[in-house]
Each structure stands twice: as C-alpha cells, then as structure tokens.
Design brief:
This protein is of the alpha/beta class. Helix content is 27%, strand content 26%.
C-alpha cells in the first residue's frame, strides 16, 4: 500500500528500476539502510518488505517527510524519517546500503527551487547539483562492506558519476538500465537540452541507469 500526498514525487519508472536493483541485494533484519531523497518512502517500504528493521529515510521536503512517515505506518515498516539536506542529518552514522533517486533533470539555471513540485526533479543546468554531492558525501556514510544504489539519467553525465565514485575508492557497475520516452518535463526542455549538447536533434528518449558502488577490497574507508 502506497499513499502519495499532493506535491510529492510520484513513483514511476525510475523509482521501480531502483526497487528492482534493491531486490537483488542481500537484506536482513540488521541491514542498516539509508533512503536519500525519500519522496513517498516507497523504497523504504520496499526495504522493510525485504527484511530490514533498521531504515533511515531523509528528504528535504516537509511533505515528503510526512508522506514517508504515513507510508511507513501503513506498511508497518520500522523507518526513522528525518528532514534534512542529503547526508547532513546522518553525519557520523554508517549504513550497509544507501538508496538514492535524487533530482537529476537539467534545469534552466543552477539555482535550485526552495519549494514546489519542481524541487523533486530540477537539478541545476547540468542535472548534477545533487548527484555531485551524493558522489562526494555518501562514501563517508558507508560501512566497510557498504553499497550504494544510485539512479540517474544519462542526460546528467554517467561517466562523471562513475569517475567521481571510483576516485573515492569505490568499485562501480551499472546493474540496471532502461530506455524510456522523454517525460513531459524533459520533453518541454528538449530545445534547451539540445542547445547545451545534452541531446541530439530529434532525440526523444533517455536512458535511466542504476549504479552499484561499493568499496574495493584493496581500498577501505579509514
């Protein structure tokens, strides 16, 4: 059961692709899971259904925090829900599995919206305002055997994500991908994206991927 409050991002193809990747991870009652950019809390509910009893969900939006709490209650999931900016609320904590479906749609400017529905998708002129921070911050909250599952669009630079995570000492693979037609927001920005060289003339589809990033055996966080 999943309820969505008005103004909270509706789970769709990207959400379900990340949920598929989650289903391939070993999850037990003691698996510490962090759901970043939780939205409705769908992934937290899926993590609880997989067996985890130690889940933390973080979102910067007040409605998303309320929505996640409601869905945790509806699904009888043990989820600690906190409002905050990415990993800031969990500084000093460590997690075995981090899930993140952040905003990744390139927008008109680098100024991120402080409120409204666009907060769920606008991610700066190159779509990386949050992705870059996630690549930098999340390794610091992973346990030694920890893994991150991160979803993004190819329009936001797959190679940069891989390079940034590898520079932190993580082994990175793409474990899920799908090509989908542009959604209404991306389609409306097709001209802007083409001028920036992010899409080709006539392109009307984008690739979504899930990165799996975990510590290499030879490199462990100190």
């Amino acid at each position: 059961m999943l309820l969505r409050l008005p103004g909270v991002y509706r789970p769709q193809t990207d959400s379900f692709l990340l949920a598929q990747a989650l289903s391939s991870e070993p999850v037990g009652a003691r698996t510490r899971i962090l759901d970043l950019c939780a939205g409705t809390g769908m992934l937290s509910a899926r993590a609880a259904a997989a067996g985890s009893e130690d889940i933390t969900a973080v979102d910067i939006g007040r409605r998303a925090v309320v929505n996640t709490r409601i869905n945790a209650w509806l699904n009888r999931a043990h989820v600690r829900v906190v409002r905050g900016d990415l990993t800031v609320p969990v500084d000093g904590e460590r997690f075995d599995l981090v899930l993140s479906n952040p905003p990744y749609v390139p927008s008109a400017t680098d100024r991120l919206p402080a409120r409204g529905a666009a907060r769920a998708w606008d991610a700066g002129s190159n779509g990386r305002s949050l992705l870059d921070r996630i690549c930098t911050e999340v390794p610091d909250v992973l346990t030694d055997g920890g893994v991150m599952l991160l979803l993004q669009s190819a329009l936001s630079g797959l190679e940069k994500t891989q390079v940034m995570l590898e520079e932190r000492g993580l082994e990175v693979d793409i474990v899920r991908s799908v090509d989908i037609p542009f959604g209404p927001i991306t389609a409306a920005r097709e001209g802007m994206l083409r001028r920036r060289g992010l899409v080709e003339a006539g392109q009307d589809r984008e690739r979504l991927v899930v990165f799996r990033a975990g510590w290499r055996e030879a490199v462990r966080r100190g």
